[in-house]
Structure formats: structure tokens, C-alpha cells
Amino acid sequence: MTERPTETHDGVETVEAVVRAQMSKALGGRRGMFEAAVPTLVFTVLWLTTKDLRVALTVSIASALLLLVLRLVQRSSVQFVLNALFGIGIGALFVQISASRGGSSDDQALAYFLPGIIYNAGYSVLLAATCLVGWPLVGFMVGSVTGDATAWHRDKQIVRLCTLLTWLLTVPCLIRVVVQTPIWLAGKSGSIEADSAVAALGILKIAMGWPLQLAALAAMVWVLSRNHTPLESAEAEPA
User: Fold this and answer.
1) How far apart are CA 226 and CA 217, in angstroms?
2) Residue 50: count of CB within 10 angstroms of its CB
3) Residue 196 is inside which H or E element, if any?
4) Are the C-beta atoms of residues 56 and 118 closer than 8 Å to each other?
5) What is the tens place of the pLDDT at every residue in 135-185?
6) Domain extents for the chain?
7) Can you say how many angstroms the Cα of residue 138 is from the centroid of all Cα atoms in its chain?
8) Hey, how many other C-beta atoms are within 10 angstroms of the C-beta on 20?
9) Whole-angstrom Cα distance, residue 205 to residue 156?
């Protein structure tokens, strides 16, 4: 029986441990989740109460900038605040495009949520494609630790594990697209009131954001807890 390795890479000796560590960094903890949710919550509440897109966008951007300043003062990672600011910026761009095309205030409010739907659809396709071609995205997390971006692909056991984990990452994105797209289309077509669509999309963007990611992570942790694949096996040449 092959013994588990005694040497580690940055204190990590199994593929499962690598993925757990990398996913923890990607989620950003409770604070990262809070920073991702605040701008969307502010925008949705202000739009529904004031009907003023400029106010809603300005205050949501200001809230993200305040969080950014706090991060800078504390000299901690600004990654998740910058992600939120980027999302707001893209949403604002879509609002401006809608306005330039003569869209009503309702159309512009709905346009704010369109980039998120497009992003999740595109990310779903990307993740699924990496699995279908046999190079699952999670595998490159392993490669980033071993120092060889592709050596893990020579071990079929690791490829199977990383494929399953990548599919689990795909599920939240697919769920968001399947749930949010009909609501957006209904609000755009007038099948439901725009206010109702905006409120639903705002709530769903928060409720289906980190909570779904955490659910996917829980499923990944369960899968990872069942296996102990040696990290060094990713570097082994085929027999």
C-alpha cells in the first residue's frame, strides 16, 4: 500500500486540502460576503423607495467606496470590495446604455441586473466546457500550488475529483440563470410590474449569491472529506 507523503507544499499534502484552502480564500469569509451584498441591497432599496436611479447608483457606489476605505485603513485585502465596485460599474454602464436607447426608468433599473445574469450564464458555460474537454477548472487550483499548472492532468484520479468539484461550482451559476432570467424577461415585457421584478431580482441576487456558493462549498467539502489524494501524485509520470 502506498504511504501518504510526508513532505508538503506550503504545509499542504493532499489535493483535497489544496482545494479547501483555495476555496476559502475565494469566498473571503463573512466580511467578503457582506461587502458583496451591501451595494446591491442599497441600490434595490433606494430605487424602490425613491424611483431615482441616480440616487440609487450614487449611494450604492458610495457605500462600496466606504467599505474600500475601511479596508485600506486596516491594510487588509481589498479584493472583494473591488469586485463589488466592478459589478456596480458594469451595472451602471448597462443603465447608461439603456438610457441612451430611450429606455424608461423601469427599463434602466432592470438593465442594472442584466450583467449579473449574463455573467452567470457565461461562467456556467465556461465551467461546463472545462469539464467536457477534460481540463476542469478546479484542477488549475492544484497546479497553482504544485508549481506545475498541468502536471495534475496526468493523474486520472485527480482529474475525476476536480471534474466533480468543478461541476459543483457550476450548479449555483445555473440556478441563478434559470431563476432570474424569467423574472427579468417578465419585467421587461410588462408581464409583471417592473417594481416587482426589480425587488425580486434584488432579493434573489443577494439570496442566491453567497448562500448558494456556501451550499456548493458544503457539497465540495463533503466530497473532499471522503478522499485523501496525495498531492505528489499529480506530479507522477504515468506508468
Assistant:
1) 14
2) 12
3) helix 194-207
4) no
5) 999 888 777 766 777 888 888 888 888 899 999 999 999 999 999 999 999
6) 27-103, 113-233
7) 14
8) 16
9) 37
Name, in order, each residue with C-beta under 8 angstroms of 86's C-beta and a sequence gap of 6 or more: none
pTM (2 decimals)?
0.76
DSSP secondary structure string, 66-127?
HHHHHHHHHT---HHHHHHHHHHHHHHHHHHHHHHTT--HHHHHHHTTHHHHHHHHHHHHHH
Q: How far apart are CA 7 and CA 10, in angstroms?
A: 10
Q: Enter the DSSP assignment of 14.
A: B
pLDDT tens digits for 33-77? 777 778 888 888 888 888 788 898 899 899 989 989 988 998 888
The answer to whether 35 touches 41, Cβ cutoff 8 Å, is no
Using a 10 angstrom Cβ sphere, with 0-12 exposed, 13-18 middle and 19 or more buried, the burial of residue 177 is: buried
Placement of cell 465556461 in the chain: 126
